[in-house]
UniProtKB/TrEMBL annotation:
Protein name as it appears in the record: MFS transporter
Segment forming the signal sequence: none
The keyword Transit peptide is annotated on this UniProt entry: no
Record key words, sorted: Cell membrane, Membrane, Transmembrane, Transmembrane helix
Source species: Streptomyces achromogenes
Membrane topology category: Multi-pass membrane protein
Cellular location(s): Cell membrane
Length: 450
């Protein structure tokens, strides 16, 4: 008798095949990322508009973003150990609820909040804080509940959908703010967060139905002890005594492999983040584009980013290491082409696609590498410390780039960053098999079973 013939007798639905399960998982995760990203695009623009309307000064918009960036650095350092000792799934749900509460409280028309600049700055900082903690919680949760191959596909598709949302969110935010001016636009952001929370519950339900989940698999090839499927969702408590943040930091600095990774990664992200954030200034000041035309050309880098997410999903876990090298070189080639030949708009468009492709493949691959190679029980602290260093370094570089633009112009600056990306690509080519193995061989990693 076949399984389908037995189904009415048992009263239980037949478990999904692996292919159907993976397709459903990717679709649900794509909806989750899209709803989160659209909400983020709306509330970012809404808070900026509120600050500008209340003060009449563009500098206050920078203040809102600067404070938000600062609290994210604090969250990276402080929240990591909490995620390791607690339940990242619960933390992510609480982050959703806090954001929903803030948006509704301001959006329903509270004059105390929506008419005072300090309140908008505090509200925006609160949202940025809990949003970043929620992002960290998802970063920690995914390797606990997905095997390595599925994790790479999920992260790749997530990168593609997020890039697509970056094309849509300014349009959607503009329509929302036109229909619901002022603080009421935040109600739509709240609605999208409610949708994201519901979809996240669906995502967890799909993970629990993973075929073969009754037989947990190791997320890491090295045997980290992390499990997948329903068993992992039981969220076994973390060990009572985990190494302190200081111990983790010392381990990172004392490990030659992780020290090299952090150095190469910091240099690469410094160049990538500075280039992407100064593209608009380059096109307006160096290529004399109008604001509208310059903004439209940014879409070409997003097209490259959409393709990049699909490339990551297709590459699989073993493709992560080579991606660090070739994606950086591709982004460097795109940056140099923009600087040298960007006066031709067709060449500029092609170069931006190349840069966006390299940008997304590199960042997604580096994040996956940390998820797969850091100790599973310390992933929150590990990732938080790395992220804090990267954010501080990138913030300083972005600040300095503004002065360099004014002093030397956009082309020389882009030539320097393009050359730096090619240099880091060469550095990543020296990050060999032994380095990759040593990433999982620190004193804080579990001892492999004999």
């Amino acid at each position: 008798m076949t399984a389908t013939e037995q189904e009415p007798r048992t009263g239980r639905p037949a478990p999904p095949t692996a292919a159907r399960w993976l397709t459903l998982l990717l679709v649900v995760f794509a909806v989750l990322v899209m709803s989160r990203s659209l909400s983020e695009g709306i509330y970012d623009i809404a808070f900026a508009n509120l600050a500008l309307d209340l003060s009449g000064l563009v500098s206050t918009v920078g203040l809102v973003y600067c404070v938000g960036y600062g609290v994210e650095v604090v969250a990276s350092v402080a929240a990591g150990p909490l995620l390791d000792r607690g339940n990242p799934k619960t933390v992510l749900i609480v982050a959703y609820l806090v954001k929903i509460g803030v948006f509704v409280f301001i959006g329903i028309g509270s004059t105390i909040l929506s008419s005072h600049l300090w309140a908008i700055v505090v509200a925006a900082a609160t949202v940025d804080l809990v949003h970043h903690i929620g992002e960290m919680a998802l970063f920690v949760l995914l390797p606990r509940i997905l095997d390595a191959k599925t994790l790479v596909r999920v992260q790749g598709i997530g990168g593609t959908i997020r890039s697509a949302a970056e094309l849509l969110s300014p349009v959607v935010a503009g329509l929302v703010i036109a229909l619901l001016p002022g603080s009421r636009a935040l109600l739509v952001a709240a609605g999208l967060q409610v949708l994201a929370l519901a979809v996240f519950a669906g995502f967890i339900a799909v993970v629990a139905r993973q075929p073969g989940s009754a037989h947990p698999k190791s997320v890491h090839a090295q045997g980290s002890g992390a499990t997948t499927g329903a068993a992992a969702l039981e969220e076994e408590p973390a060990p009572a005594l985990l190494p302190s943040r200081r111990t983790v930091a010392r381990t990172l600095l004392s490990s030659p492999a992780w020290r090299r990774f952090l150095t190469f990664h910091a240099l690469t992200v410094l160049a990538l983040s500075t280039v992407i954030l100064s593209l608009l200034s380059l096109m307006r000041e160096t290529f004399a584009m109008s604001p509208a035309r310059a903004g439209s050309f940014l879409a070409f880098s997003t097209i490259g980013a959409i393709i990049g997410g699909l490339v990551v999903a297709k590459a699989g876990p073993q493709g992560v290491y080579s991606s660090l090298r070739w994606a950086t070189a591709l982004a460097g080639a795109g940056t140099l082409t923009v600087a040298l030949l960007g006066g031709s708009q067709w060449i500029l468009a092609a170069a931006l696609v190349l840069f966006g492709l390299g940008f997304t493949v590199y960042l997604r691959s580096a994040g996956i590498l940390v998820q797969l190679r850091a100790p599973a029980t310390l992933l929150g602290t590990w990732h938080g410390l790395l992220d804090a260093v990267i954010r501080v370094v990138s913030a300083g570089a972005i600040l300095a780039t503004g002065f360099l633009f004014d002093r030397f112009g956009g082309r020389p600056v882009y030539l320097v960053f393009g050359a730096l990306l090619l240099l880091t690509a060469a550095l990543w080519s020296t990050f060999g098999t032994q380095d990759q193995h040593n990433l999982s061989s620190t004193p804080l990693h579990p001892t492999p079973a004999p």
